[in-house]
Structure formats: structure tokens, C-alpha cells
């Protein structure tokens, strides 16, 4: 099941061709995106995702997105969904076709089923490897043209890193700096649980501000957890009670093995945190 | 004038939609490309471009491209071109549509007119600024998942760097490392002329091997120039007789101003080098 909607709310066949060959999103990776989880018809953190889309667009000097139109497209997908309980809802926004005389950006919302691999990762956790990202934590502020922390569609490196993890027999990646600083996963935010406190690195080091991580921290605080946004090192991850990868669709995935080393069983902490996260969406 | 051909040699309307919304080239920047200059029906360095397409594809773990099919598509564009003397011929190859049950990669050749801005840059040269790329020269060998030196379509940073140059009142960019090492331009190879020798940095530092730079060095050697592929520093660029950006479509563009500082007039050297380069294609 797939549902495709454009920004005016009209639906279209998701299996048909809708994009020109000279779309700059395709030719140059010149666009931004969001992936939203919809459960029982309710999009999670929709406002945060839309705001982040606008933030990424600004970092790429794209025209300011009309967030009302984006919300309309998202809701059109949800209203017309006839598939499972959950929808993976992608918003994609590019600079548009190079040869389009009107110079219009490209934008659409695409609803898809959850990949069975995601369900397995949620249930069983993942093994991860640390891979160097090549950047230093100070770089994002110094060099905004590197688009560190923008959710651009130029994700070839993120995809290559996941393939490298697979080659090493692992499921996922935690990007690091040469000095051992923890950045993020290719499609997730790193969260550490230690002695009643949740930690995540600050987005100022050049990583994406995590919508799911933010919702988790909000929910966990209500249940007595402390939360801290501060730099982490790989050695910190080995010294806690749980390392997690937060992302919209996988929610909070346990990392059970890091660089081939088994981490302490974080099942109980995971259950507690998932309850705190889910409580944010209980009606 | 535009001409679009697919890998089986069939032509299609370049202004129609041919790409699905879930093409991984669009969603993830997960693809590679080449840009070839065609003059009077003759594609320049076609074999080198096809080989580099295959090299980039291997770096991204894409299926090995059928180079005979790519050549066929390129020639189909050239044969059906009814525009100006020169064609900008783009080859684009992506992992294909996520939801395509056949799992076929996407591939096409697109012929376009030369942008008037390019003609101006060829004639008048450009001003450039150095911008930090964030990587160190040793990284490419250590971290192949960063795809340094692959011509992937994940070019959002390259495009953002050019916009940053424009904001600074310049036309183009030379990417550098924090230690002052020279990498490449966002869409070009850096060439320095000094005392009868041409210099360019080695691709092993994580930059694209330049097809035009290679052809230039080949032609220049025949005319008595020495050529050296070795690391360069920004200070070297300021101490030579000419700094050039080599790229297929702009050929060899003079950098007349670097970081706001006028470089020595390289007009005579430029004319000599262009003659050496053009002689490679004289019939």
C-alpha cells in the first residue's frame, strides 16, 4: 500500500512517473526531506517535523516552504490510507526541475508501509559499529556550507555507511569524530541512558536535531528521568545502562552490540523508555 | 534544445516525467553521474567518463554499469541533437525506485545546451574563494564509506558552497583542508601552472580524478610542459603563474581572483594551455 499526495492535496498514482529527469533533487541531491511515523491515523511530532523541514530548507537556501500546504499533503495521505496501522510518511522538497520555465520547487508526501526489518529492529535491537564521519565537532558553526545538521536528500554517505556496517556483520552505524566524539546514526539520534539520566549530543556539533529523541526526553522527564544534551564520547556509550538509536519509524531501538562488544542488557530500561515515549501519544 | 535517451537507446520527451517519486537517486542521493562535453558531434574523453562512471558506481556498490549501453545512450543523444555546436551531455545512474518490484537501476543520458554563464567563465575567468571542506587529506583511504572521490549525485554541499561563494561576491570555490591543503572545486579540478610545470593534487586525498585535467596534462606534456600530481597548498596557488579550474564543460577556466586577491594575469598561459587541450581533439 502506498499513497502519494502533492502540495495542493491532490492524490496521484505512486507507481507512475511524476518527476522530470532534470529535477535538481535527482541531479544534485539538492533537496530536503522528513520521515514521519503515523499510528492509527495520528502523525507523530508533525509540527516538529514541519519545522525541521523549514529549517533544512533554509540551510539549503530553498524557498521557504508553505507549511500549511505540507500539512495538507500529509493529511491527504493519511485520510486516503487503507493499509496497516502504521504509515511511514515521507515529505520530500527539492529545488525543482532545472529546465522548468516556471522554476517551481518539487514537493510531495508519500505514505508507505513499515518495512518488516524495522519491526524486527524495534523488537530485537540492533548491532552497531562506530564509523568515522570525517568532521570535527566545531566544524558546523565554522562552515555552514557543509550543511551539517540539514536533512538533505544528499544521503549517499549515510547509505554507504550502512552498507559498510553490513559488510562488518552489523546492522547500523554510530558516526564518530577522530577524537572519539559521538555524532549520530546515519538515520537516527544516539541516546545514552545512565543512572537515571538520558544523554544525547547537542545538534550544534553538526548533527540533526532529533524529533523522536526530543519527544522521548519530554516523556521521560515527566516520569522522573533527568535529561542532558551534552557531548558524548564512545567510551561513555560503553559505560552506561543502555545505548539507543532514536528515529521516527524505528522509535527507540536498543543497541545490543557495539563494535562487536556486547553491551549490558538494556531490555528493562528500553521498556520503561518506550512506555514514556508512547504515553506522549496516548489519548 | 534537450535530448533524452535511455539505456536501450530509445528517445523520450525531456520535458515529461520519467522518474518515480521513490527513486533512491531522488530520496537518498543514491546514484552517480558524469557530465561530458560534446563538440561538433564528438564526445570528449568519452571512455574516461564511462570508466569513471563505473568507478563511482563501484564505490557506491551499485550494479556494474553496462558501458556499451551507456555509450549507446550517449550516442543516441548526439545523433538526435539539433541544437548548437556543443552539447552538455549528462549521464545519470541511480539505484532505482525503492518500490519497483523488478529492482532495476535508473539510467539515462540527457543532452542540454551550454549555459551562457559557462561561455562567460571560459572567456573572462572567474573569481574564487577557498572554503573548508571539513575533511583531512588522509581520510579517503581510511574511510571509504565517506565516498570521497566518487561522483555521486549527493551534491548538496557542492551546490551550497557555490551559493556561499556568491554571497561573498565570488563565482566559484576551491575546497581546502584545515591545514591549507587544496582539494578541488565543487565541480572542477584545480590546476596550477608554475615555471613550465602543471600541478594538480592527487585523487588519493579524496578528490575526483579529473577527466579534463588528465586530457590537459596529456596535451601539455606533448608541448613541453612538465606535469606533477602532488599535494598543493593555498600558498602554492598564490605563488604560480596561473590557477585554473578544469571541468568538462568549462574546459580550463582562469581564476583571476582568489579570496579577494587579484592573481597575476594568466591570459598568455591560459591561451597556450587551451591550445594544447584543443589539439587533443583536432582531427
TrEMBL record, chains A, B:
Q: Its family?
A: Belongs to the class-IV pyridoxal-phosphate-dependent aminotransferase family.
| SUPFAM superfamilies tied to this protein | D-aminoacid aminotransferase-like PLP-dependent enzymes
A single GO molecular-function term is: 4-amino-4-deoxychorismate lyase activity
Q: Give the protein's recorded name.
A: Aminodeoxychorismate lyase
Keywords from the named record: Lyase
Bilayer-crossing regions: none
Task: Specify the species.
Answer: Amycolatopsis samaneae
Instruction: Output the NCBIfam families linked to this UniProt entry.
Output: PRK07849.1-1 (NF005886), PRK07849.1-2 (NF005887)
This enzyme's EC code(s): 4.1.3.38
Source species taxonomy = Bacteria, Bacillati, Actinomycetota, Actinomycetes, Pseudonocardiales
Signal peptide residues on this chain, from the entry's feature table:
none
Amino acid at each position: 500500500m502506498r499513497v502519494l499526495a502533492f502540495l495542493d492535496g491532490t492524490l496521484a498514482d505512486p507507481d507512475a512517473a511524476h518527476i522530470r529527469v532534470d529535477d535538481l533533487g535527482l541531479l544534485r541531491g539538492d533537496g530536503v526531506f522528513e520521515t514521519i511515523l503515523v499510528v492509527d491515523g495520528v502523525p507523530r511530532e508533525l509540527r516538529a517535523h514541519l519545522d525541521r523541514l523549514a529549517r533544512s530548507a533554509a540551510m539549503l537556501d530553498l524557498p521557504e516552504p508553505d507549511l500549511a500546504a505540507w500539512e495538507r499533503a500529509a493529511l491527504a495521505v493519511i485520510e486516503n490510507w487503507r493499509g496497516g496501522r502504521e504509515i511511514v510518511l515521507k515529505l520530500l522538497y527539492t529545488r525543482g526541475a532545472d529546465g522548468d520555465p516556471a522554476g517551481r520547487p518539487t514537493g510531495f508526501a508519500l505514505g508507505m508501509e513499515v518495512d518488516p526489518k524495522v519491526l524486527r529492529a524495534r523488537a530485537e535491537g540492533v548491532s552497531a559499529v562506530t564509523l568515522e564521519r570525517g568532521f570535527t565537532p566545531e566544524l558546523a558553526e565554522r562552515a555552514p556550507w557543509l550543511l551539517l545538521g540539514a536533512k538533505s536528500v544528499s544521503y549517499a554517505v549515510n547509505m554507504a555507511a550502512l552498507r559498510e556496517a553490513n559488510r562488518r556483520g552489523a546492522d547500523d552505524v554510530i558516526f564518530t569524530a577522530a577524537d572519539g566524539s559521538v555524532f549520530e546514526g546515519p538515520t537516527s539520534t544516539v541516546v545514552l541512558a545512565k543512572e537515571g539520566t538520558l544523554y544525547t549530543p547537542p545538534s550544534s556539533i553538526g548533527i540533526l536535531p532529533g524529533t523522536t529523541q526530543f519527544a522521548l526526553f519530554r516523556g521521560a522527564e515527566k516520569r522522573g528521568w533527568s535529561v542532558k544534551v551534552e557531548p558524548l564520547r564512545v567510551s561513555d556509550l560503553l559505560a552506561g545502562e543502555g545505548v539507543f538509536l532514536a528515529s521516527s519509524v524505528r522509535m527507540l531501538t536498543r543497541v545490543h552490540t557495539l563494535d562487536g562488544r556486547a553491551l549490558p542488557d538494556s531490555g528493562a530500561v528500553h521498556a520503561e523508555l518506550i512506555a514514556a515515549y508512547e504515553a506522549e501519544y496516548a489519548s
